[in-house]
Amino acid sequence: AQSVTQLDSHVSVSEGTPVLLRCNYSSSYSPSLFWYVQHPNKGLQLLLKYTSAATLVKGINGFEAEFKKSETSFHLTKPSAHMSDAAEYFCVVSDTGFQKLVFGTGTRLLVSP
Amino acid sequence: SAVISQKPSRDICQRGTSLTIQCQVDSQVTMMFWYRQQPGQSLTLIATANQGSEATYESGFVIDKFPISRPNLTFSTLTVSNMSPEDSSIYLCSVVPAGGPEAGELFFGEGSRLTVL
User: Fold this and answer.
1) Cα(A50)–Cα(A102) distance, rounded to whole angstroms?
2) Residue B43 and residue A45: Cβ atoms within 8 Å?
3) Once rounded to an integer, what is the mean pLDDT over residues B86-109?
4) Which chain A residues touch B94 with a CB distance below 8 Å?
């Protein structure tokens, strides 16, 4: 069975400093992995996805994530945080494409001036 | 990107009543899904809405409680039946566009926030 663990429920950073949101996954097959962002009272937006191509995946708004099979990790990073990055971030895994996505519990990113 | 309209965006309902949520997409999609996000929780897949046939439900969700329709490639409804306060959640429609540059991507609507008193 597939699962995903987001290691931090909250992450606080200052504007202009790096962002690291951690995610570990468990999957029996070669998984697809995603990061979604949810701003308050908004729908979810896809940041980036990994589907067995390059292990370093670049997404929108300067975010990127690296797939590390040996560590079963898919951490999300950004070199410099912006106030507009404050939101809830979900790491998602799937063994079967879009048929069954398994969401992590989310990490709330707080960005202070 | 695919434009997904969900109605209502929010509602307050009385215990024991039912509410139908609509999901309309501006283009044809191959797959449509319904998710639930309980307060402070992550998203859980309720079911896959299949065009012209019964939806495929995930463990813990049943048709009598969450009947779903999908009469065509761009529209689906989810009904929350005989509601209780435990049904207070955000219900999200998600779709995979059938063609164009966004084919194969998964998009989410903004959700329908339901409060049951």
Assistant:
1) 15
2) no
3) 85
4) 44
What's the pLDDT at B103? 66
Q: Which two tokens stand for residue A12?
A: 């606080």
CB distance A44–B92 less than 8 Å?
yes
CA distance B85 to A55: 44
User: Does B23 touch chain A if contact means CB atoms closer than 8 Å?
Assistant: no
> How far lies A105's CA from each of A3, A23, A67, B76, in Å?
11, 10, 19, 27
The per-residue pLDDT for range B77-90, each reduced to its tens digit, is 999 999 999 999 99
**DSSP state, B58?**
P
Inter-chain contact A98–B41, Cβ cutoff 8 Å?
A: no
Q: How many CB atoms lie within 10 A of CB A11?
A: 18
Please answer yes or no on whether B43 and A103 come within 8 Å at the CB atom: yes
Strand (E) or helix (H) holding A95: none
The DSSP element (H or E) to which A73 belongs, if any, is strand A73-78
Find out whether B45 and B57 touch, Cβ atoms under 8 Å: no
Cα–Cα distance for residue pair A79/A62, rounded to 1 Å: 8
